[in-house]
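Section 5.1 Outputs to date
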Amino acid sequence: MPEKKTEPWTMASMDELLAFARAMEQEAIDGYVSLAARMRAENRPDLAAVFDRLTAEEEGHLENVDRWLGDRTPRPVVLPKPLFDDEGAGLVAQELLTSYRAFSMAVRNEERAFVFWSYAAAHAPNDEIRLAAERLAMDELGHVATLRRERRRAFHAMRHAEAHAAKGKLPVLERRLSSLLMKLAASVGVPVAERLRAHSAEAAERAQLLSREPSAETPLLQHVPDNVSERLVPLCEFLLDCYLDLAERERTEAGRKQAQMFAGDMIRCLQDVRALPTS
């Protein structure tokens, strides 16, 4: 399978252009299929349906490319680098994923594809390839518009849900984390249990400190995802997001350093918790 050595936007022939178009669409299909499967395994049929819709969109794009190929046999190519990016959706705790985030990721992928084909058109060696690349760029622009509409709908649905959701407080979440860690420590071996108890003590200390000296506000606490406090990994990830956001919002150096320190604590806790099958 040949690997392209020149810049990705320099297409030497129509066969190469169509081969790249097909490879890009297939890469996106594979990515969305994988995400849909993960959401089903995590019992999130709502998000599985979103990724199924995105898969169907990309399959439609692939059919268009195949019709354009006609009798040509698409040659295999290796993309210079992956152009599809799930932006961590395949790894982040499923409780932290939303339809809005899924559509936002899809929008950015289509925007990257638009830029790719725009460059391909600008660097085309002849009019035939330039016009073909421009057509592909315009197709991607249409996909961007469609997905941005879907993202707006998801955003308004999310805001409606947030208006009826309970707000979170860091000390409460930290105490919940401390409790979950102690409970887990009682069911594992000594070396791991000691680390979990240490993380539990740190969480309790953070809760006490934040109760005495509240931090700046983070909008993330306006809507705590459902069930985020029921499992360790989602709770750790949510708290990590809160502290990282606070580190950017804090106006004092002391407050910023404290938020960064708490974020570091959460990363270390996450590493230990993720290593456990019971997390």
